[in-house]
Every structure is written in C-alpha cells, then in structure tokens.
Amino acid sequence: MPSLCAAELWRRSERWDLMGRDLFRLKDRHDAEYCLGPTHEEAITELLASQGHLSHKQLPLLLYQVTRKFRDEPRPRFGLLRGREFYMKDMYTFDTSEEAAHLTYQTVCQAYTRLFARLGLNCVQVQADTGNIGGKLSHEFQLPAEVGEDRLLVCGDCAFSANVETMEPGQTDCPQCHKGTLTESKGIEVGHTFYLGTKYSHIFNATFSNPQSKPVVAEMGCFGLGVTRILAAAIEVLSTEDAIHWPGLLAPYQVCILPPKRGSKVGHLEGLAEELCRSLGSAIPGLRGEVVLDDRTQLTIGKRLKDAGCLGYPYVIVVGQSAAEDLPRFEVRCQQSGETMFLSREGLMDL
Ligand SMILES: [Zn+2]
Question: Locate the Aminoacyl-transfer RNA synthetases class-II family profile domain: which residues (predicted)?
C-alpha cells in the first residue's frame, strides 16, 4: 500500500475529518490533497473492490504488509516507543459472514498470543476501545511496564482485563466473574485487533458472490503489530541499568566474538578469531548471519566486553590469553545466566 494516500478515499469513509490533527496532510502542485497513511483500511478495501467480485470460495482472505506508518503524535517520545514514523505489520481480513469473521478474529488473536510468548514477552490481551478505526469489537495486546502510557484494569480472580477507556469511571468490580476486584497497572500497547463488520466494505462496495451468485458485502477485520515499538518495549521491560537484554529471537546478533588487542602478547590469535567467526556462522545453521566480529582491535578486550554487555549480545566469545595455552580454551559469556565458561572448541560448538 502506498504511504501517500489520496484524501478522496479518506473523505469517503469520513475519516478525513475524524482523524483530526493526527493525520499528516499535504497538497501536490495541483492543490490535490493527500495524507501520509497511518493505517490502510480505505486503501486495501478500495483495492479489493476494484478487482470485481470475489467468489465465496476465495474467503477468508487475509492480506498483510509491513510498512512505514505516519501519525502526527502530540507527544512523540521515548524514541521508538512513540514516534511519528514507525513500522507496523497491518493485516486486513475478508470473510463471508459475521460468524466466519469472528473465527478469523480468534485465530489471529491466538497467533498474536503465540508470537509474544515465543518472544518471551508477558503480554496481556485486554478489551479495548475501537477509537477512530471503528467497528464492533477490539482488543489490545499490552506489555505491562511502568513507562507505559495506557492504563489497564486486571481481575485477580479470572482472565478479565480491559483498557480503562472501556470501563465506567471508578469501576472496581469485575464485570465478568462479579467477585474479583480490578487492579490497575500501566501498559505499552504493542498490538491491536478490530472486528470491523461491514463498516469499510459497505462504503467501498467490497463484495463477494455467494453460492447463489448474489453479491454480498464482505465482513472485515484489521490487525496491527507495532514492529518498531515491540523492539523498544521489549528492551524496556527486559533490560537492566547497565545492559540491554533482547528477546533471543530479536537480538540483532546471537554471538559476538572478540579478537585480542592488536600488538598484545596474544595478538597473533586475531586470525583464529576471524576463522572461528566464519566457521560458527557456516557450521551451525541457526547462526548464519548471527555472528559478529568486534574487530576494533585497537581497543582492549575489557573495553570491548563492556560495549558488548551494553549492546546485549546473548553470547560473547573472547579469544584471548586462554586460547593461546596448550589446551586452548575460549572464554564464553552467557548474558541470560550471567555465567562465564571456558570451553574447548568442541565444547563451544556443542553449546
Ligand atoms: Zn473477574
């Protein structure tokens, strides 16, 4: 979907006015109006409608992209946590009936839950407001954190949780189990799901032909993951004062290798470090492209170890003094356990 979106589409859905100052607006040389897309319900529904009738056999249809989005935030802050330009995974779904759309909705929510679990992030799915996207049903995926800007109410007795925005002011009794009390915490929104019904498909005439070959307006959902915000939020909740801790799957590199300082007593091991870097990356399928060599060998190992800690590599391997001994050993530091091990080459490959 294009970043540059025609105002005409947004006027048809009445969101040109509804979005207010959140929308980045601009004009071309002929004075035609555009916005920088903060989301793409209009564009994708129009695209689908322009293709003519879909068959009911082609549904459900789930279309997604990962692109830059733009939002004129009143208070951009905390770097990638709340920026005016960010990456989002957005998906739009088309179904034959309300029932089918609900099933798609549940399926995607379950996929989001699994995704956050695999990242090792303790995410909660909360009932949410549909805001300016609209629709009938909505959930947010929230990462509990002190710097979070959303306020959540979580029940102590059942699985109920909600964004404060969706609740009566001052409500402390759980509306689901009626016995638990709701406690408030702060959260960072990292995902958002909406069951839209026919709000957009009706306006843009996105239809499919049913088994009797009659055109029927499609039921829609939309689903977003804040890709760049997940990076920042994960670091925010997992890190300590002096070191970044990445979820293993998100760490830019799994392993950092430190060759000795140039000109030191073991300076001749620089080649060994380079060779180790190449062979780890090629011998172990999961490490392809995941091993980096800190070849700033004008710096001491101590200085580079400190930097490696700050950058949060899950594993750091030092090729130093102990690698020059008769039984060469590599010093391996594991960030997650805080352990330091001295391993032979075989031991290292096993690890
Ligand atoms: Zn409850």
Answer: 1-252
Tell whether 250 is covered by a domain: no
Look at residue 246 and tell me if it is in a domain: no
User: pLDDT for 264-311, tens place per residue?
Assistant: 999 999 999 999 999 998 988 889 999 999 999 999 999 999 999 889
Contact between residue 140 and residue 185 where contact means Cβ atoms under 8 Å apart: no
* 117 and 265 inside one domain: no
How many angstroms is it from 67 CA to the middle of ligand 1? 38
Domain tally for the chain? Answer: 2
Residue 172 alpha carbon to ligand 1 centre in Å: 10
Separation of CA 153 and ligand 1 centre (Å) = 10
Of 83, 10, 20, nearest in space to 45 by CA: 10
pLDDT digits (tens, 9 = 90+) for 61-101: 999 999 999 999 998 888 888 899 999 999 999 999 999 99
For residue 184, how far is its CA from the centre of ligand 1 (angstroms)?
Answer: 13
Centre of ligand 1 from the C-alpha of residue 149, in Å: 23
Which residue range(s) make up the domain with 186? 4-238
**What is the CA(159)–ligand 1 centre distance, in A?**
6
pLDDT class for 203, splitting at 50, 70, 90?
A: very high
Task: Give residue-wise pLDDT tens across range 217-240.
Answer: 999 999 999 999 999 999 999 998
CA of 157 to the centre of ligand 1 (A): 5
**Residue 158: partners with Cβ closer than 8 Å, 6 or more residues away:** 174, 176, 177, 180
Residues 87 and 216 in one domain: yes
Residue 136: count other Cβ atoms within 10 Å of its Cβ.
14
| pLDDT for position 193 | 97
Res 131 pLDDT > 90: no
Is-contact 45 201, C-beta < 8 A?
yes
Using DSSP's 3-state secondary structure scheme, residue 115 falls into helix
Distance 273 CA to ligand 1 centre (A): 56
Residue 283, amino acid: A
